[in-house]
Write a structure and sequence with these properties.
Length: about 325
């Protein structure tokens, strides 16, 4: 189907399992019908959402990206030694190519790089740029929702498998979903497989609240883009100005909750169905869970992973872990 319309350029294949629009419609209909309205955070990442997220990563207030990059840079040799030679490196959500480039520069050899991402255009552009820049690197992109079951493309070496899941995206899963995802990755990579994973740490609420309420309103635009995407793809008629961005750290849940708050009583249509919003009613759009090193290790252990190494920054804002599947 559409995979045939893509010019593969230097890529070694392309596996297109992008979720269909029907899945988006069902999730939105379902999510807006409940007592607490919700839209799953994975739908943030269409082309515009991915662009806005890249902009968030460069914001002064959003410390995770630059802090994780600093940790990866300072510890690149130790990380490359943990992964070992001739590995097949599977990246779950291939957002920022800055991070993978740090690993590619440090690894002495690699069998293949398999980026998996839900946003097809973003994935293909990033994969193509890497294949152009790293001569001889086998890049095999897979367009899929990695929060569900994933299979590795045929033909890639399974001799030594390592996963890469940076950015603390694990924090966007509820803890039970995070454990299920980690179990699934352990099954995919098999006993002895490695996982390099970035995890944001619990800290002063003021730092967290600033990171998700930036002064330029980029996070607000990212949040509202969910409604814009519904208007574009599901024939919606949301008034974007009718909803305010709200993000706040909930210490009891150790989590930033992100919502869109209805500024007035209003209705909006989505693919032929009408939904009513009271003044002040919210759509819960994202949770971003924050861990301690110990609470993350407990989660990983429950999912079948052994913690081998952990690296943090001097201010203890962020952590990068190397786990091995038992
Ligand atoms: C992708 N994820 C780890 C980001 C986070 O920090 O939870 C998404 C994000 N939402 C608002 N700002 C960034």
């Amino acid at each position: 189907m559409e995979a045939t319309a893509i010019d593969l350029g230097p890529l070694r294949g392309f596996h297109d399992l992008e979720p269909a629009v029907e899945e988006f419609r069902a999730a939105v209909w379902d999510g807006l019908a409940g007592a607490q309205k919700r839209i799953p955070a994975k739908f943030f990442y269409d082309a515009e959402g991915s662009r806005l997220f890249d902009a968030i990563c460069g914001l002064a207030e959003y410390y995770p990206t630059r802090t994780e990059i600093g940790i990866l840079r300072r510890n690149a040799d130790a990380i490359a030694a943990a992964i070992g030679p001739e590995a097949t490196l599977v990246e779950f959500g291939s957002g920022s190519s800055v991070k993978i480039r740090i690993l590619l520069d440090a690894l002495s050899s690699l069998a293949a790089y398999v980026p998996i991402d839900i946003s097809r255009d973003h994935l293909v552009a990033a994969a193509r740029a890497l294949a152009d820049d790293y001569d001889g690197l086998a890049v095999v992109p897979v367009c899929a929702d990695y929060s569900g079951p994933v299979v590795l493309p045929p033909g890639v070496s399974r001799h030594r498998l390592a996963g890469f899941f940076p950015g603390s995206t694990i924090g966007n899963f509820a803890p039970t979903q995070a454990a299920a995802f980690l179990k699934q990755v352990a099954a995919l990579l098999g006993p002895g497989g490695g996982l390099l994973i970035g995890v944001d740490l619990q800290k002063d609420a003021a730092i967290l609240n600033a990171a998700y309420n930036d002064a330029d309103g980029v996070t607000a635009a990212f949040n509202r883009n969910l409604l814009a995407r519904i208007n574009r793809e599901l024939d919606g008629d949301f008034d974007l100005d009718g909803f305010a961005h709200n993000a706040c750290y909930n210490p009891a849940r150790a989590c930033i909750e992100m919502h869109l708050i209805s500024r007035r009583h209003q209705k909006a249509a989505v693919a032929g169905r009408s939904f009513e919003f009271q003044h002040g009613e919210t759509i819960h759009t994202e949770d971003s869970h924050k861990y301690t090193v110990d609470s993350f290790h407990a989660l990983a252990a429950a999912a079948g992973w052994q913690a081998e190494q952990v690296w943090t920054d001097p201010d203890h804002l962020f952590s990068v872990h190397y786990l091995v599947a038992g």
